[in-house]
Amino acid sequence: MTAVSDVLPFLAKRYEADLIIANGENASQGFGLTHRDCLALKDMGVDVITLGNHWRTRKSIDDDLEAIDTLVRPHNVRDYDLGQGYVSLDVNGVPVTVSNLLGTAFMKEEVNSPSASMHEILDEAPEGVHIVDYHAESTSEKSLFAHYFDGMVSAVLGTHTHVQTADARILPQGTGFISDVGMCGAYESVIGFEPQSVIDRIYFNGPNPMRVDDEAEAMVNAVLLDIDEQTYLCKAITPLVYVNGKERIHG
Ligand SMILES: [Fe+2]
């Protein structure tokens, strides 16, 4: 949360963002999204919050999903009917849909077919810009999905691995794609958690939970999308990395 609040106003202004989307499924100390943090993200200027496999780690999300239509959980989760798997908005006169899906490879959740669920959303949602948060572990699964829906949606943005991938590009039919947008959280960490706490927990079966170090250097990973308002296809996708508020090139 600190990483985002430190730079989001600056980024929104610098890039003149029309719409800000954040995956919030791990925003609350690494697991789930509390009611307070959900409201805090909205107050920071996040327009749409997507979720993922931790969508219901904190049960308060049930009420939030019912109350906040710009909070979106994976459309293809089974046996869960609260809230919505996509939201359609009017952004400066342009119809925009943001949808959220869970992948299947190396994931524990019981889900309906991501591709069938995506077709379902496409049948229901208004024609316009369509940005998909495809929350999945496997890069190949995310690439497969993006190529299948190339030209049918504006962008397929992978999330879940917390590590930004170096494959951002426009696919042949005009869909912007990246296997994983990355993470907002501690830069020197194991996917957001303080390293020693992960070593103790995983290698030595320690009793303490993995913890988030709020004092660590804060990193923000994001992508900037430039989308054609006539064709709804992607003109540019630019990965962003900021550490302690400064733009950084990896290395
Ligand atoms: Fe996840």
Secondary-structure map:
Blueprint: H1 2-14, E1 21-23, H2 35-44, E2 48-50, H3 61-67, E3 71-72, E4 86-91, E5 94-102, H4 114-124, E6 129-135, H5 139-148, E7 155-159, E8 169-170, E9 176-178, E10 184-186, H6 195-203, E11 218-227, E12 234-243, E13 246-247
Parallel strand pairs: 1-2, 2-3, 5-6, 6-7, 7-9
Antiparallel strand pairs: 4-5, 8-9, 10-11, 11-12, 12-13
This protein binds fe (ii) ion.
Commentary on this structure:
- This protein is an alpha/beta fold and 251 residues long.
- It has one domain: Purple Acid Phosphatase, chain A, domain 2 (4-Layer Sandwich).
- It has helices at 2-14, 35-44, 61-67, 114-124, 139-148, 195-203, and strands at 21-23, 48-50, 71-72, 86-91, 94-102, 129-135, 155-159, 169-170, 176-178, 184-186, 218-227, 234-243, 246-247.
- The longest helix is centred in the N-terminal third of the chain and has 13 residues, at 2-14.
- The protein is globular and about 50 Å long.
- The two termini are 25 Å apart.
- Bound molecules: fe (ii) ion.
- Residues 25, 52-54, 135, 160 line the site of fe (ii) ion.
- The site of fe (ii) ion has 6 residues, from loops.
Provide a brief overview of the structure.
This protein is 24% helix and 26% strand. The protein is of the alpha/beta class and 251 residues long.
Number of domains: 1
Order of helices and strands: HEHEHEEEHEHEEEEHEEE
**Rounded radius of gyration (Å):** 17 Å
- Give me the CATH superfamily: Metallo-dependent phosphatases
The geometry reads as globular
Largest sheet: 6 strands, mixed
Strand content: 25-35%
Give the ligands present: fe (ii) ion
Using DSSP, what is the number of strands?
13
CATH architecture: 4-Layer Sandwich
Show unreliable segments. Answer: none
Mean pLDDT: 96
Straight-line N-to-C gap: 25 Å
Count of alpha/pi helices: 6
Multimeric status of the protein: single chain
Structural class: alpha/beta
